[in-house]
Amino acid sequence: KISMDAYSPAGGPEPGPYPVVLIAHGFQLPPAQYTSYAQRLASHGYVALTVDFQAGLFNPDHVAYAKQVLGGIDWVAQEATLGPVADTDNVGLTGHSLGGKLAVLGATMDPRVRASITLDPVDGAMNCDPQKCPDVSNLLPLDIPLGFVGETLDAQGGFMSCAPAADNFLTFYKNTTAPALAVTVLGANHMSFLDDLAGCGFTCSFCNAPTLDNAVVNDLSRAFVVAFYGRHLRGIVEYDLYLTGAEAQARYVDMGLVEIASK
Quick one: which of 77, 137, 129 has its CA closest to 103? Predict the structure, then answer.
């Protein structure tokens, strides 16, 4: 059984049904570290879930984990409160680190997934059987929009890089076709996308020290996630302004916070 926390709009101008977004946590990281993403999405008219897939230290199986994340779609459909207001044929997958890899993998497995934007996904296999832990970047391109918000500070360094260059978000983006988005957050480290980097503890100690404040990374990464799904799950073209257009340029690029690539 998989634990999930679900957030949905309490009201507002749109009665639903709302697109569904599933959020997968990083390896050995609690789903509660991504609550702000789910809450922000719900406030913009989505049914958003953090999914506690069962990633253990031994015998990894990324295909099984991705299926657990996708199970959230069926759970929402039958849940008494959420089912009537959820559009389970219009789904987005988001995840961080291993969860980001699972989000992209899940998008290859379920046609209900219409878009995916991930947070510093890592395409590692941890000496796992390639049937259970495939190289997901090699499964690309997909025929859905894909977005990646990541960093390169942890591409090298330390005993083991937190997001090695050979497996980081840019390796996913390289194999995509349009529409696709890559946002490099300058000064962020691999764990900067958590809600509370200061409370991360031992797990985060392996990564290089970030130079950009955690709150700044949270704010801009949540904004890109909401804008990406607004554009690609809701079809609101004006969100392009916040992804690659004038608003993104003024708020983030001109301020030296990010670099943006798109197809």
Answer: 137
What is the rounded distance in angstroms from the CA atom of residue 95 to the CA atom of residue 103? Answer: 6
Contact 219, 54 (CB under 8 A): no
Q: At what angle do helices 214-232 and 35-43 cross, to 10 degrees?
A: 40
Query: Distances from the Cα of 20 to the Cαs of 31, 116, 139, 141, 235, in angstroms?
Result: 17, 11, 24, 23, 14
Among residues 198, 237, 204, 232, the alpha carbon closest in space to that of 218 is found at: 198
| 24-76 tens-digit pLDDT | 999 989 999 999 999 999 999 999 999 999 987 788 999 999 999 999 999 99
Q: pLDDT tens across 184-232, in order?
A: 999 999 999 999 998 888 878 889 999 999 999 999 999 999 999 999 9
User: SS3 of 117, please?
Assistant: strand
**In contact, 169 and 163? CB cutoff 8 Å:** yes
3-state secondary structure of 78: helix
Q: With contact defined as beta carbons under 8 Å apart, do 120 and 151 qualify? A: yes
How far is Cα 20 from Cα 48, in angstroms, rounded to an integer?
6
Beta bridge partner(s), residue 92: 21, 115
Amino acid identity for residue 156 in this structure: Q
Convert 144-161 into a string of H (helix), E (strand) and C (coil): CCEEEEECCCCCCCCCCC
Q: How far apart are CA 119 and CA 208, in angstroms?
A: 17
